[in-house]
């Protein structure tokens, strides 16, 4: 059963200068356990999306987000929840990601992990345009 109004979720894409992005695997006990996603989590009442993202990255990965840029928003209805995903890209953070909640994670260039969380799949082509646009500009 899904909720009537969507749950706001802050989602972060850590992006290295070469375009690699960090994906995390959903841990056992959560819906879609074993699926890969961009890290993030629910926005708490009274919290801004950006602050939720920063909090989640400290809690899940031990990483301090220095700056982010809003990228896109997507609503998706899963069997267990209706979510409104707010995607942000960060190219500037402090620390190396650690598995603080027991989740696997992987830096990906050409995305090779499977399965991807359903709401993430349509965004991969858009993300590739962002990831590689700067590299193409530098070559030209």
UniProtKB/TrEMBL annotation:
InterPro entries: Mutator_MutT (IPR003561), MutT-like (IPR047127), Nudix_hydrolase (IPR020476), NUDIX_hydrolase-like_dom_sf (IPR015797), NUDIX_hydrolase_CS (IPR020084), NUDIX_hydrolase_dom (IPR000086). Its EC number is 3.6.1.55. The keyword DNA damage applies. GO terms for molecular function: 8-oxo-7,8-dihydrodeoxyguanosine triphosphate pyrophosphatase activity; 8-oxo-7,8-dihydroguanosine triphosphate pyrophosphatase activity; 8-oxo-dGDP phosphatase activity; 8-oxo-GDP phosphatase activity; metal ion binding. Its cofactor is Mg(2+). Residues 5-130 form the Nudix hydrolase domain. 8-oxo-dGTP binds at residues 26, 37-40. CDD domains: NUDIX_MutT_NudA_like. It catalyses: 8-oxo-dGTP + H2O = 8-oxo-dGMP + diphosphate + H(+); 8-oxo-GTP + H2O = 8-oxo-GMP + diphosphate + H(+). Keywords: DNA damage, DNA repair, DNA replication, Hydrolase, Magnesium, Metal-binding, Mutator protein. The keyword Signal does not apply. SUPFAM superfamilies: Nudix. It comes from the Bacteria. It is an enzyme of class 3 (hydrolase). PANTHER family: 8-OXO-DGTP DIPHOSPHATASE (PTHR47707), NUDIX HYDROLASE FAMILY PROTEIN (PTHR47707:SF1). Belongs to the Nudix hydrolase family. This is 8-oxo-dGTP diphosphatase. The lineage of its organism: Bacteria, Pseudomonadati, Pseudomonadota, Betaproteobacteria, Burkholderiales.
């Amino acid at each position: 059963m899904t909720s009537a109004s969507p749950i706001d979720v802050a989602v972060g894409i850590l992006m290295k200068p070469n375009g690699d992005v960090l994906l995390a695997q959903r841990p056992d006990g959560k819906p879609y356990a074993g699926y890969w996603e961009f890290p993030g989590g629910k926005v708490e009442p009274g919290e801004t999306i950006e602050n939720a993202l920063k909090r989640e990255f400290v809690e899940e990965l031990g990483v301090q987000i220095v700056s982010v840029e809003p990228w896109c928003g997507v609503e998706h209805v899963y069997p267990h929840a209706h979510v409104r995903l707010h995607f942000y890209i960060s190219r500037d953070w402090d620390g190396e990601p650690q598995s603080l909640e027991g989740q696997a994670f992987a830096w990906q260039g050409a995305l090779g992990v499977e399965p991807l969380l359903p709401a993430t799949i349509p965004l991969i082509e858009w993300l590739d345009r962002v990831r590689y646009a700067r590299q193409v500009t530098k070559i030209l």
